[in-house]
Amino acid sequence: MVSTWPARRRFWDRIAVVKYAQAKVVEIPAPGGDEAPVRAVPLAERFPGIDIHRVLVADRIPTDEADPRAQNFYRALARLFRVFGPHEPDVPPVPTNRDSALEHAYTPAHRELFPAPELPAEYEDPDLGVLAVASPYDGYLVATGEGTFEWDLRSLAEYEVHPGLVRLGVRVEFAQDGPRLRATAIESDLGRQVPGDAGWERAVGLALCAATTHTSLVRHYNWVHLVPGAAFAIATRSALPTDHPVKRLLWPHIFRTQFSNWVTTVGQLSVGGDFESIFSFTRPALLRLYDDTAGAFDATVVDPLRDAEKRGILGVGLDLPVLANSLAHHEVMCAHAERYLRAYYPDDGALAADEDVRRWYESLDGLVPNGVGVLGDVSGIESAARLMGSLIHLVSYQHEARGTLLWNYQMWTDVQPIRVYENGQDEPADVYQRLVNANFGLNIRRTPMMRDYSYLALDQRGRAAFRSYLADLLALQTRLEAEPRALWKVYPEMLEANMNG
Ligand SMILES: [Fe+2]
Fold it and tell me: Is the pLDDT score of 213 beyond 70?
């Protein structure tokens, strides 16, 4: 039988390139374009065929966010997945040398739009002890005792994988060596391995596969976009009046969320969508993972400082470079929220007495499984600023660090497999090609954070606060540029104002 894969590949590469080339940076209009409330409904209700029930999504795309052309394009894509999808059975594995794999998969047409990924220095001789603090997977490290730590991704073993793949449940043990960590053992379906064992390298690959899968599916898509991100946008749009100062503060960070979540859900979670085609899980397992991890959502993860405290990694002498980078941004964002709130509320009592703000908080708290109380509340300015600053950090910094940043990590599947095969083979070329095209799409240019949003303010007080924020971001940019460059580092210049897709 003649292979249709070359034709499918050309077709889907073309789609990826055209989609990238046609995307435009969206200008954020002032609120008021669509004041009808947006309600939350179970995802399965809004997207027939995507059986996820515990994730709540908006019941509609507000008219000021709608882009009917783009929505029709995504509807057509979802149909095409089924009739002429980018896969064929028995496509041969990707070349073992990933430089040549990438050379082939990342075509000149792609490269003209966005540069090829770079190999992180930490991937030249992959060491989980280094990657646990200096990679997009920095959020998994948890203290287990004096000088001992772990990555506990064992629960992933409960989710069925495509035939021929190794299950993803993994636990990595680490020991502290001064400011550094050493991986000392890995437990998985491959058995228990320690450094020096013949199977150690393969176990490291499986651990990185589990981490990158969890980062893309859970940390990025479920725990940024779907669970807290959608709730943040729904509450801000629907519970606050157009000319409320808090709505103006948060608006640049929520505008287009519902459009974005709609198109990305169609593209990634439809039958034949990116997620089930790229990663290890079968479709039923994938959908169950979304339900389970929505139900188990702990909002602590949204505040990088509280999250690190909870994981027990602070104050024990560890070098935590990614966390330092994250906290630097978090401080600037919380300071912005506080300065802005102080410009409008003389004291805690004035804020606590604002019924619109209380309604916003109650709406947000009610929409997020297990609530957002751990992040702060609206009983005082400091607490509210911490909550709002953390939400801004979620949709900008965390969205970047757990999503777009993976561009330089996920393509090196010789170091960090996207699937681990029982027979030791590499992933088929069609799976690799889809991984490349999906990640390429994440790099589409979007509305930047470092822009003057003072036009959204109601008056001089708000304008001054927006401008101070921009000045703080510029100062952070300058400070970070003076430090050595690293691919795990996020710079204010890389940030988008929100997670619009
Ligand atoms: Fe995203």
Answer: yes
CA of 428 to the centre of ligand 1 (A): 25
Kindly give the distance from the C-alpha atom of residue 402 to the centroid of ligand 1, in angstroms, as a whole number: 8
CA distance 280 to 215: 13
pLDDT in tens, 49-65: 999 999 999 999 999 99
Residue 423 CA to ligand 1 center (angstroms) comes to 33
Q: What is the mean pLDDT of the chain?
A: 96
Longest CA–CA separation in the chain, Å: 75
Is 7 strand, coil or helix?
helix
* Measured distance CA(158)–CA(106) in Å, rounded: 34
Rounded Cα–Cα distance for residues 173 and 62 (Å)? 47
Taking only the tens place, the pLDDT of each residue in 422-472 is 999 999 999 999 999 999 999 998 999 999 999 999 999 999 999 999 999
> In this structure, what are the phi and psi dihedrals at residue 428, rounded to the nearest 5 degrees?
-65, 155
Q: How far apart are CA 442 and CA 408, in angstroms?
A: 12
Task: Give the domain ranges of the chain.
Answer: 5-120+212-494, 125-205
Q: How far apart are CA 246 and CA 355, in angstroms?
A: 12
Q: Rounded CA gap, 133 and 150, in Å?
A: 12
Using a CB cutoff of 5 Å, list residues around ligand 1, an ion: 403
Alpha carbons 439 and 106: distance in angstroms, whole number = 11
Q: 7-22: string of b/e by CB count within 10 Å (b at 16+)? A: ebbeebbebbbebbee
Q: How far is CA 295 from CA 38, 261, 280, in A?
A: 22, 19, 22
**What DSSP string runs through 417-454?**
-SS-BTT-PPPBHHHHHHHHHHHHHHTS---BSSS--G
- Ligand 1 centroid – CA 261 distance (Å): 9
Task: Write down the CATH superfamily of domain 5-120+212-494.
Answer: Lipoxygenase-1; Domain 5 (1.20.245.10)
- Using the mean position of ligand 1's atoms as its centre, give its distance from the Cα of residue 78 in Å: 18
